[in-house]
Amino acid sequence: MLGSRLRLWSAVVLMLAVAVVTAACGKGGDEESGGIEGDKLQIGAALSLTGSLAKEGALTKQGYQLCQQKVNDRGGVKVGDKKVKLAISYSDDKSEPDTAARLIDNFNDDGVQLILGPYGSPSTEAAAAAVERNGQVMVDSSGADDNIFTKGYKNTFAVLSPASDYVAVMVDAIMGSANPKPKTVAFLSADDGFSQTAAKGGVEAANKAGLDVIAEESFPEHTTDVSAALTKVRGDDPDLILGSVHVEEGIAIVKQSGELGVKPQGFGETVAPPTPDFSEALGDAANGVVGSTQWTAQATGQDEIFGTAQDYARDFEQRFGATAEYHSAEGAAACLALVLAVEEAGSADPEKVRTALTELDTESFFGPIKFDDTGKNVTKPMSAIQIQDGKVTTIYPKDQAQAELQWPGTGG
Amino acid sequence: MSQFLQATVYGLLEGGLLALVAIGFSLVWGVMNIVNLAQGAFVITGAYIAWKLNTELGLDPYLGMFVAAAALFVAGYVIQRLLINQIVNAPIWMTLLLTFGLDLLIVQGLQLLFTADFRAINTSWGTDGFAIGDVRVPYGRLAGFILAVAVTLALVWFMSRTRSGLAIRTTGMDRAAARLMGVNVRHTYALTFGLAAALAGMAGAILGSITTFSPSAAGGYTLQSFVIAVLGGLGNMWGALAGGILLGLVQAWGGQYLSGTLVNAIAFGVLVLVLIVRPAGLVGRPYYEARAEA
Fold first, then answer.
1. Minimum distance, in Å, between the CA of residue B240 and any CA atom of chain A
2. What pLDDT is attached to residue B115?
3. Surface-to-core class of residue A57, CB atoms within 10 Å of its CB (0-12 exposed, 13-18 middle, 19+ buried)
4. Which among A109, A134, A377, A386 has most CB atoms closer than 10 A?
5. pLDDT for residue A154 is more than 80
6. DSSP label of A371
C-alpha cells in the first residue's frame, strides 16, 4: 500500500521536474536582440500551408520566398553598419485563426518579434491581437478587412488596400467604360467579415455611380453551391452581378449562373478571377469576368529590391514557373516594407522598427506604401482586370490598362 | 412559385448525388460497425482520378467514374484486409482513430500530389440544360441524379439477389452464425469496404464535373455522409437515398427562404428533429434488431 502510494507520488514529482527543466531549457531566446541571431535576421511567418486556404497561403509564401532571395542576393539587410541575411521561418496555421495566434505566441517565445502576416483577414485579425499583446511588430500582407484596423492596434501595418476598395474599384472600372452602362446590380457575398466589408464598400460606390442595387444576398463562406442566392436574383434580371467572394464561391457563381440561366451583362468578382484556378476551372465561361486585384504587372513605381512591377513579374516567373499574380506580390511587398523599416531603424528592435514603419513613405513595385495612423495603406489604389481570351488583362486604372473593357462581358 | 420549384428541383438533384456519397458510409457502418471518417477522402480521390483522366486523356467524367470506382474498390479492399481488419473487434473509438488517421494521410497525400489548387472537370454539356417553364434543369446534375438512383437500385438488387450481397447482409446480422454457414467473413468485410469506397469514388467523379474540389473539401463530404447515414438509418440503402434527398431539399429550401448562411444549422436541426421522432432514422429499424453481434 505505502509502496505504491510512494511510487505514484515519485512519478508525479519526477514528471513535474522534467517538465520544468524542459521548459526552462527549451524555449530560451534572445529577447534583447529582437531577432538577430549571428548573421541572420529572423522573421516569423505563420501561414496556411494546409487547410481550406492552402492555395492562397502557398502563393503568399512564394512572395515571401522571392523577397528573401532578392534581399540576400544583394548582400542582405543593412542593420546599422553590418549586413545580415534575411531568414524567414514558416509555421503552418492550417488555415485556422486560433492556430495562427498560437504560432505568433510561439514565435515570441523563441525571441522572434518581427512577423510577416498570415493569409486572409480572419487569421490576420487573430495574429494582430497576439502581436499587440506581445509587443511584436507585424506587416500584414493579405488581411484586408477594415475591421482589423478599428481596434486601436499600433503594431500591425497592412501594405494592401483595404477590403472596402475591392468591389468599389470594379464599380468604377465598369461604370467608367461600359457601353451600354448597366442600370441594376445584385451583390452576392460570402458571409465572412472581409467579403461583407468589401460588399458594403461596393454598395456605397454603386449608389454613388447611380446604379440601382436590387439585391444583396449572402451565403456561407467556402460553399460551392450558390444556387439559392442566384435563384433569388434571377427573377429581377440584374444587369450586373458583383460577387464579394473567394475562389470557390467565385467559380460557383459563374458556373451555376450558366446552369440556372442567370444572364447578366457581366460579372465582377473579388479574389477569384486573377487566380489561375479560376480560368482553368471554368474554361470559356471565365471570359469577360471582371476582377479586382491588389496589383498587376502594369503597376507603376519601383524600388531598389524588386525594381519595377515588370521586373518582379519576370523574376517570379523565372523562379516559380508561373505567372505572377497579386497574392504573392502582396507577400513580397509586406516583406519589402519590413526590410526597409529595419534598415531605416538600423536595428531589429521592435519599437524602433515600428516607428520606422509609421514613417515609411516609399514607392515600390507594388505601388506606393505609406501607412495611416491605424496601419492601413491608404495611398495605393487597386486595379481591375478582365479575363480576355483566357488571359488576365488589366483594364483599370486607364493609364495602366493593357486593353479596354469588353462589354457585355458574358457570352465570351 | 418558380423560386420554390427551382429550389426543389435543385435540392432533389443535389440530394440524389449526396445519397451516392453517403450510401457506402452507411453500408460500412451498418454491416461492420465501422465509422469510416475517411469517406470524404475517398470521394475526393475519385474526383482527382476522374480529373486526371480528363486532363490527360480527355476522358469524359461519366466514363472516368468507372475507372475511379474500380481503382477505389481495389484500394478499399486492400485497406480493409490489411488495416481495418485489425480493429474490427476493438472499441468504436479505435475505428474512429484509425479512419481519422487514414483521412489525414489521404488528404495530405492528395495535397502533395496535386497541390491545394481548386479543380473542376469541364464538360461541354455539363452546364447546359433544358427548361420547364421558369425552372432550369441542368444536364450535369440531372445525369448525376439519375446515376445515383440507378446505383442505389443496383445495390439493393445486389444485396438481395446475389450470393455476395446476401453474404454481406448475413455477416452484418450475425458474424458468428455467418461463419458457421460457411461465409468467408474476412473477404466479405473487405468486399463491403471496397464496395463502399468504389461508390464514394464514383460519386466523387460526378461531383468533380458539377462543382469545384480540392483536398480540403473531403471533410465536408464526410460530415454530410454522417448526417445522411444517421438520418436514413444505418446500413439501409433506401434510407441513404431518402436521407440524401431530404438533406438536399432541406438545404435548398433553407437557403432559399432563410438567410443563406444558416444552411448548415438547418441541416443539423432537421437531423435532431428526425432523431427525436424516429431514433432509428427515417427508414431504419432499431439498432439492436438490425444486427446481432457475437
1. 21
2. 85
3. buried
4. A386
5. yes
6. B
Q: Does B55 touch chain A (CB under 8 A)?
A: no
Distance from C-alpha of B216 to C-alpha of B204, rounded to nearest angstrom: 14
Chain A residues inside the 8 Å CB shell of B255: 219, 225, 227-229
Q: Which of A52, A53, A227 to mutate to test the interface with B (most CBs of B within 10 A)?
A: A227
Residues of CATH 3.40.50.2300 domain(s) within chain A? 36-161+298-370, 164-293+383-400
Q: What angle do CA B279, B282, B285 make, to 5 degrees?
A: 65
Cβ–Cβ pairs < 8 A, chains A and B? 112
Burial class (CB in 10 A: 0-12, 13-18, 19+), B118: buried
B282/chain A closest Cα distance in angstroms:
26
Restricting to A residues 265-304, those with a Cβ less than 8 Å away from any Cβ of B are 276-277, 280-283, 285
C-alpha cell at A156: 500591425
- Lowest-pLDDT choice from A38-42, A303-307, A345-349, B262-266: B262-266
Which phi and psi (to 5°) does residue A41 adopt? -95, 110
The alpha carbon of residue A59 is apart from the nearest alpha carbon of chain B, in Å, by 10
Cβ–Cβ < 8 Å for A247, A275? yes
Question: Cβ of B261 under 8 Å from any chain A Cβ?
Answer: yes
Note the pLDDT tens digit of each residue in A182-219: 999 999 999 999 999 999 999 999 999 999 999 999 99
Interface contact B261-A58, CB threshold 8 A: no
Domain A164-293+383-400 has CATH 3.40.50.2300: yes
pLDDT-flagged residues of chain B (< 50): 288-294
Residue with cell 490576420: A124
**Residue carrying C-alpha cell 431539399:** B249
The beta strand positions in chain B, using DSSP E, are 129-132, 135-138
Of the listed ranges A164-178, A311-325, B54-68, B258-272, the least confidently predicted one is: B258-272
What's the complex ipTM? 0.82
Domains within chain B, CATH numbers bracketed:
2-290 (1.10.3470)
> Are the C-beta atoms of residues A146 and A376 closer than 8 Å to each other?
yes
List strand residue ranges (DSSP E) for A276-367, in order. Answer: 290-293, 302-303, 307-308, 361-362
Nearest CA in chain B to A217: B260
Measured CA to CA, the distance from residue B182 to residue A111 in angstroms comes to 67
Architecture of domain A36-161+298-370 in CATH? Answer: 3-Layer(aba) Sandwich (3.40)
Q: Which three cell numbers stand for residue A355?
A: 516607428
B52 and chain A in contact, CB less than 8 A:
no
* Shortest distance, CA A193 to any CA of chain B (angstroms): 13
